[in-house]
Amino acid sequence: MIVFFVRNRFNLFDKGTWMAPFIRSALNHDNRRNGEPKLRYNHVVICVNEIVFEAGVNKKTGKPEVIQRPLYEWMEGRSADSYYAFALNGYDYKKVFKDLVGELGKPYDFKAVLWHQLWFQITGKRLWIGHSKPNGKWYCSNIIAWVLDKNGILAFENPYKIDPEILWNRLQKNTK
Question: What is the pTM of this model?
Fold first, then answer.
């Protein structure tokens, strides 16, 4: 099982990249103030048994939702500097896979992402304005935090409030 952090470059003709610069900017707000290095990634996916699961834009339907696709298809056109991978070994992949399949087709949670990121940009404070309990909608990092928490891989107090930077920091700390 691999968690990939991805740097999506803005592309006017690809809806899946439209929020990328905004999200990277919001995540780096604190880092700029504290003189820390910028987090280069704005999206997170998880790969289980060579299938990538993500909350993103379905290229076939144009709908933002939880999708799956083969790893080779997801990797097409990506350069090595556009992602970073954390390998998670020794866990029950079948249960993680089953949990993620159960979320396929659920909508992307634009409201939570936009409000959280907007508030963070304006104030520089991590005050969560999105949902704090299951609402049937996901964004990239909270679905991964949820499935890692649910399967005892990495505990989160509230996986619905996890942004890519928090997930990155937790994986950095716990996968060495």
Answer: 0.79
